[in-house]
Amino acid sequence: MRPWRRKKVSEQREWFLKNGSTFLQELIADSNGISNPIRFFSSDQILKATDRFHPNCFISRHRFFTWYKGVIEDHRPYAIKKFTDSWFSEESEREVYNDIVLSARVSNHSSFLKLLGCSLEFPLPVIVFEYPENGVLNEQGACEDGTLLPWNVRLKIAKEVAVAVTYLHTAFPRIIIHRDIKPTNLTDFTFSVSLTVGKSWIKDKVVGTFGYIDPVYFSRGLVTEYTDVFSFGIFMLALLLGRAAVFAGSNGYHCNILDYMILVAKEIKIIEKGSHDCSEDDQI
């Protein structure tokens, strides 16, 4: 075997042992005696499926990971999630394992992508899901190509997300708080927490996406079910209005969608009051 090949195999083995032991520890701690069947893919399978993560296989990019479309076997497309290597740290490793474990826990629910497995032969695990045939939403509640979805489709999505959030909060003895609900991110559990049985809150560092973060969580670090409820409300506004949670206003400054709606509501009240006063004048 050539020296470069031996080095590659050695690195893959080292990553597998390191990632595998930590992942197994997390999975056992979460499963509570319930089986979580997950398939392990080799790095060669992942690299072949994505043509070594070629741009032609690109689906979408997020802050800490990128989605790729690839065919591993049986000619079926898969959604492959690769975390950014520059994000590598001991804390980020834990968050990646958390993503895999919680994805496995909710995998059989129709509102979430079905987890098929992962590869541990990379610096950070690469995760493999069933491919979402309906595509991926962008920040404005539109399809990948930027086309705004019809009203009935957006309302259907809102209902499905509401069901999904309720499932996270009620289906398990340990409540799952997502902490980063937004149109592009429901299937990502990187920042999610699983509360201790019988506990309804924890105090933790603030994570998530600006514009979607609950003000109580932001100011006090308290993570509760209402952390997700607030984010879901912002998600609804973004979905129904076809705007991002934070967007460029007419004056060129960034505008928060919640502040925008408060302003619109005040303007509506002024218009309604004006209309009411005019009708009284007409009667006189």
Automatic annotation (TrEMBL):
Pfam families given in the database record: Pkinase
GO MF term set: ATP binding; protein kinase activity
Keyword Amino-acid biosynthesis: no
Keywords carried by this UniProt record: ATP-binding, Membrane, Nucleotide-binding, Transmembrane, Transmembrane helix
PROSITE patterns: PROTEIN_KINASE_DOM (PS50011)
Domain Protein kinase: 53-284
Segments passing through the bilayer: 229-248
InterPro entries listed in its UniProt record: Kinase-like_dom_sf, Prot_kinase_dom, WAK-like
Example GO biological process: cell surface receptor signaling pathway
This protein's name: Protein kinase domain-containing protein
